[in-house]
Amino acid sequence: MKVKVMSFGFSHGIPEEAGYLFDARILPNPYHVPELKPLNGLDTRVQAYVMDHPDSQAVLDAAEKLILTVLPLYEQQERPLTVCFGCYGGHHRSVSIAEKFFARLSEKEIDAEICHRDLEKSDK
Prior knowledge:
- Helices cover 38% and strands 19% of the residues.
- The protein is an alpha/beta fold.
């Protein structure tokens, strides 16, 4: 079974396929930092800005613990699992934390794929 990790922007709507949704709007926002604003969460500088905050690590740890707890149940029932991380526009925070979450799953050899649904869309 493959776990789908998705970043998205709340301004573009919540993904229908979301099994679990984590709100990254509570994390530090690179959008308000002039040198980071034109970048996105695939850039290591943006990831560092978001993830170097203790609250970001706590959210990531909690998400990982929850998903690792429920994953065997999804596997038993052969149900698809999509884990979504959202921020306002889907460019900075959600992409950063989704990338880190995906990396954690990969380190545990969990079959996963990542999708950044709104990365190419403009902010509303």
